[in-house]
């Protein structure tokens, strides 16, 4: 069974925290253990870690949309037994540029520039879709 959740992000600095809460809630509602009940502490721990990794990816994508995009920004989750797809979209009123990975190394005292590198490490795959009206940055994560 595939479930889709969509939500409009607040257009301020609360977007990342709100996005994390949204993904945690959606995964809890779906049943993070792929619709089977877990009987081991190890499986429960792995499931909880997977939720937090998804929350971290969501947080980075939401932050980038708020910092670099134009309202309205939206968050969409597509959840099935095997995958979670996280999509964050924003209006192209400021030009519709394609997000890029920061060139490494980033100085330790630099604020920012690590978000997409983190997404690149944590997600199975990620990318962007840019059209005349919006930019969507998406990430896919395995749930199995």
Automatic annotation (TrEMBL):
Molecular function per GO: protein serine/threonine kinase activity
Record CDD domains: HATPase_RsbW-like (cd16936)
Domain Histidine kinase/HSP90-like ATPase: 10-139
Keywords: Kinase, Serine/threonine-protein kinase, Transferase
Protein name: Unannotated protein
Taxonomic lineage from the root: unclassified sequences, metagenomes, ecological metagenomes
């Amino acid at each position: 069974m595939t479930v889709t959740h969509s939500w409009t992000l607040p257009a301020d600095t609360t977007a990342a925290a709100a996005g994390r809460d949204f993904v945690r809630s959606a995964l809890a509602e779906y049943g993070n253990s792929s619709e089977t009940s877990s009987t081991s502490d190890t499986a429960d721990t792995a499931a909880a870690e997977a939720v937090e990794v998804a929350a971290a990816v969501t947080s980075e994508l939401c932050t980038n949309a708020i910092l670099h995009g134009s309202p309205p920004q939206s968050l969409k989750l597509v959840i099935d037994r095997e995958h979670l797809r996280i999509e964050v979209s924003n209006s192209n009123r400021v030009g519709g540029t394609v997000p890029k990975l920061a060139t490494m190394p980033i100085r330790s005292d630099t604020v920012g520039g690590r978000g997409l590198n983190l997404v690149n490490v944590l997600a199975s795959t990620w990318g962007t879709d840019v059209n005349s009206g919006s930019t969507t940055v998406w990430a896919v994560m395995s749930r199995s």
